[in-house]
Specification:
five-stranded parallel beta sheet, elongated, single chain, hydrolase, alpha/beta, 3 domains, 704 residues, Rossmann fold, five-stranded antiparallel beta sheet, Killer Toxin P4, Chain A, signal, SGNH_hydro
């Protein structure tokens, strides 16, 4: 039986293959030679299934090397145990053997290599068919050593490398997780990392690819190098006032640095720079006649940053992790909440004032002597840490080295002089003895969903390269038009089909006139009847680098979307909304009802109540209803019919929609007003006004 996770993985692979602009490097032309059938190394004749790039049975031996993204820190459960080590010895640059077991390397069972392994089957050799040497924290020099320590005859290798060369983990720790030092130092080292990405990463990755040359079985073997993905959504300033640091509970005052939109964009740009360097290294290796295997680059960043709600600081998130409001989150993150959420008492409120430094806290009369002694210790520790961090930052290879490539030369050629390392290398513990255990180190790494995505894009690139080898077209997932009625998914949202039918043609005309011009992948939403039970959105979205718009297709699509859903047992023509994806994802049309507190199940007839009381000089009326007057505050439905019945004598008009109809006997709205006397019988008790407005009441009690 095929498992649901496997089906999901296949679907995502299909999307990756069908909609991701794969980087197809220039492949070297192979000389035409006759195969000697008697040669022991001759390939067997192709079987029919061998022409299918998605058939992986040709892979007998494969490996995963790399850094923490390949080790999968935090994704699922740790492999191995602190005491019982699954020992794998690696020869490190100083010539010694170092044990790199699963526990020490923080390898986890939902890492993308383990996801891929689960899709491979019986064809993998049982003894050493899969070598998993990736280790969290490894830089290119260690990953190079991983490559040289692999046992050969490999059909397939996948890896990530490069992020740690630019001290990415250290920068994240010091600039986000424990961000209590001068902003200038953090910004400086990030800027230097961006600059050095152009000089260091490309050569580092190319050296690793060269080291794999002797490990691959043949010219038809494949290596897939995976990129990284941008961490942050930078749309809103919702993260500026959240606590991302691991010491949120300490009174650190104004030394805290906010995770602003600008800083998020800076971190994202560093990831883009690293990816660009990796891609260039892969392109160079693909064109290098000395590299005998096929090599490709797998970029999953576009999926994370454009296609799904997967990044930190998303407008949909409330700061929790995991967050039910953001089910597609692809990264592990700390719980982050606004500061005021922790002001549970006077003392904490005093300590957490952002504009208050430690010296001001020490002068506060609300703090006890012991609390002030604690603050003094914290202040001394923070000052020592700031000094050490700045010293390390400005003494690191990222900042000080005139030739950052010296890091590569030394690490990959042990005869070269040793340059300074990343900030904090070999220095004192800057986390107050906390260190960086997995529960902290896993932050800003892919979670289980992220690793499924990496695995999917890696497999898609693997199949693309296999297609080139076989001389066949790349497999793709042909996406048909997708039509979804939201009521079929259990949604209890709905609006009037009559109302939406009045508006969709005008909406499509507005999109044609006002849509973003000369822009691809645009989105045009519009809300209607806001604040009423009928509130809804029409939305048009384009994808796959589409810029154009067809008004006639828009009209046709919304007509079908509105009138093809919810047609049975629905005399009042309520519509639960839906989604219509057309042209293989080029266009998406949506009708989204917004009111989540309407009467359920939806009414099959309108209903209401009425009462009118004689007050000598006027009649005083109250009407409540459901299923009519639900979008206009009674202005286009009730009022014209009242005026036509007894003239222009309506005064003291008040009309309100109930937030929760369940608290008002199922009525969605209430209207109160005064009329001329003695109009109840001819206008309300006989339902003349209400019926003309599309509604109904059981008469109208009272004495007017």
């Amino acid at each position: 039986m095929i498992s649901q996770p496997f089906l999901g993985l296949l679907a995502l692979v299909g999307m990756a293959n069908g909609h991701t602009p794969h980087v197809h490097m220039p492949q070297r032309a192979e000389p035409s030679t006759a195969t000697n059938a008697s040669s022991p190394s001759a390939s067997p004749p192709l079987l029919k299934r061998d022409s299918d790039p998605s058939d992986m049975s040709w892979i007998k031996r494969w490996a995963a090397i790399g850094d923490s993204y390949t080790a999968g820190i935090g994704a699922g459960r740790p492999l191995g145990h602190r005491i019982t080590a699954d020992e794998v010895a690696i020869r490190v640059p100083d010539g010694l053997d170092e044990v790199r077991d699963n526990w020490k390397c923080s390898r986890y069972d939902q890492a993308y290599p383990k996801v891929i392994e689960a899709q491979f089957g019986y064809h993998i050799e049982k003894d050493g068919g899969f070598q998993y040497l990736a280790c969290s924290g490894d830089r290119s020099e260690q990953i190079y050593q991983q490559a040289t320590n692999l046992k050969g005859d490999l059909d397939f290798v996948t890896f990530t490398a490069g992020g740690n060369d630019l001290c990415l983990a250290g920068i994240i720790k010091d600039c986000i997780m424990v961000p209590y030092f001068k902003t200038s130092a953090c910004n400086t080292v990030i800027a230097k990392a961006q600059e050095n990405a152009k000089n260091m990463i490309k050569d580092n990755v190319k050296q690793i690819l060269t080291a794999l040359n002797d490990k691959m079985k043949s010219k038809d073997s494949i290596v897939v190098v995976n990129g990284y993905a941008q961490f942050f959504d930078a749309t809103l300033d919702n993260c500026d006032h959240q606590s991302w640091d691991v010491f949120w509970y300490l009174p650190l005052g104004a030394s805290y640095q906010a995770l602003t939109i600008s800083r998020r964009n800076t971190f994202n740009q560093l990831v883009l720079d690293i990816n660009k360097a990796i891609r260039e290294a892969v392109n160079d290796a693909a064109a290098d006649s000395n590299i005998k295997y096929r090599v490709g680059y797998s970029e999953w960043d576009r999926w994370v940053s454009e296609e799904v709600d997967a990044q930190m600081c998303s407008p949909s998130s409330n700061g929790d992790y995991p967050d039910k409001n953001q089910p597609d989150m692809h990264f592990i993150k700390p719980d982050t909440h606004p500061w005021f959420g922790w002001q549970t008492d006077v003392e904490r409120s005093e300590l957490r004032k952002r504009d208050m430094d430690l010296d001001e806290m020490l002068s506060s009369p609300r703090l006890s002597a012991s609390q002030k002694r604690h603050i003094k210790r914290v202040k001394a520790a923070m000052e020592a840490r700031e000094s050490a961090i700045e010293r390390d930052l400005y003494d690191s290879v990222l900042y000080k080295s005139a030739n950052p490539r010296a890091a590569v030369i030394h690490k990959l050629d042990r005869r070269a002089p040793k340059p300074p390392g990343c900030p904090g290398d070999g220095g004192s513990d800057m986390t107050f003895g906390l260190g960086m255990p997995d529960h902290i180190g896993q932050n800003f790494h892919p979670n289980e969903a992220g690793h499924v995505t990496i695995a999917s894009f890696a497999l898609a690139e693997l199949m693309d390269l296999r297609s080139i080898i076989l001389g066949v077209n790349s497999p793709s997932c042909a996406i048909k038009d997708e039509f979804t009625c939201f009521s079929g998914t259990g949604s209890k949202f709905y609006v009037s089909g009559n109302r939406t039918n009045e508006l969709y043609e005008d909406f499509c005309k507005e999109v044609e006139d006002k849509r973003p011009k000369n822009t691809i992948n645009w989105n045009y939403p519009k809300s209607y009847d806001e604040g009423t039970p009928e509130e809804f959105d029409f939305v048009v979205t384009t994808g796959n680098d589409v810029a154009s718009f067809d008004k006639d297709q828009c009209v046709e699509s919304f007509k079908k979307l509105i009138n093809s859903c919810d047609t049975k047992d629905n005399p009042m023509n309520w519509k639960g909304g839906g989604r219509y994806i057309r042209n293989e994802g080029d266009y998406k049309y949506e009708l989204n009802p917004r009111r989540n507190n309407r009467v359920w199940p939806w009414p099959k007839n309108p209903y209401g109540r009425c009462e009118g009381w004689y007050k000598v000089f006027f009649g005083q009326y109250t009407i409540e209803g459901t299923g009519f007057a639900s979008f206009d505050y009674g202005q286009k439905s009730m009022r014209p019919n009242m005026d036509s019945c007894y003239g222009l004598g309506t005064t003291a008009w008040k009309f309100n929609y109930h937030d929760n109809p369940g608290d008002h006997n199922g009525y969605e709205w209430k209207a109160t007003f005064n009329t001329p006397i003695w109009v109840r019988a001819r206008c309300f008790k006989n339902n003349k006004v209400v019926k003309a407005a599309g509604g109904w009441t059981d008469g109208c009690k009272g004495n007017d």
